[in-house]
Amino acid sequence: MLGDDDVTNALRTIDEANSTTTLQRTATAESEARYYVALSDYQAPVGTEQISLKEGDIVIVLSDERDGFYMAEVEGNKGLVPVGHVSEYKPIHLVPLYRLKLTN
Measured between alpha carbons, how far is 27 from 94 in angstroms, rounded to an integer? Predict the structure, then answer.
């Protein structure tokens, strides 16, 4: 028969495993995410799936280009952004240290 300590330890082990799995998935998803930056302001037409951009917005591309648009997320809003208004970049925390050029 299992005691209270056995049940508590089993639940703790399950929680730790779930937490680790979630962290691994988050890290993997972040390293595979495609980050872009908005090159200019863009006002999305009303009544479309497009989302507006402000120059410098960080855009997370969710799918490959289709008909001149990416499905993307900007500040929690998902929608279409025009390919010509964004440029791909890699956030500094995702660049391996050996690729950084350090200068004095």
Answer: 10
